[in-house]
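Homework help board

Subject: predicted structure for assignment chain

Our instructor gave us this sequence and asked us to write out the predicted structure in token form, then describe one feature. I got the tokens but I'm not sure how to describe them. Can anyone check?
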Amino acid sequence: GLFISGGAVIVNVYFAGRRAEAMEETAKATNRNADAANKNAEAANRNAEAANKNAETANQKQITERFSKAIEQLGSDKPEVILGGIYTLERIARDSEPDQWTIMEVLTAFVRQNAPIIKENESQSPEDQEKFLKLRISIRACLTVIAERKHPDLENKRLDLTKVNISEFNLFKANLTRADLEGANLTGANLTRANLTRANPTGA
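My token output:
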């Protein structure tokens, strides 16, 4: 009985050791699998980051190309082409906050160039008058985009609309916050509910 009992104990101890070894191997395999999974996850994260960077680069490239094309369109002599450029700039400004102010500067420069104040002692040539009338729709589109800009303005920046002739234009509910309207012709313009907070209307 002692021999049988002792043999049984030895057998149990042997198989218990084998089970412990098997469990240890299983645990090691599980750890190896976990390490591999972590490495795969890290690689996937790196790939995702690289993909995001590539997508951002591609997006910035596309924005740059669209911006350059729109600037070219502003120099066209065809009103419909100019309007296309203005509305392209509007979409870029809405989609890309960092580019909004640059676009506002481009549009205000377009207005200043094509709708300047004519002094009383100056005469406007028939060609200039015709050009102004032809560009009036484009100037109105610029003012609409400026007035409905989506993102906050940059600190210490002003919309430069100095000495522009925007008489009779509809600026209803226009956002003209901090706009520099010094010397501008606003005769007959509709400024109902326009936001002129901190605007400069000196001599307008």
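Reply (TA_rk): Your tokens look well-formed. For the description, you could write something like this. The chain is about 65% helix and 0% strand. That's the kind of observation they're looking for.
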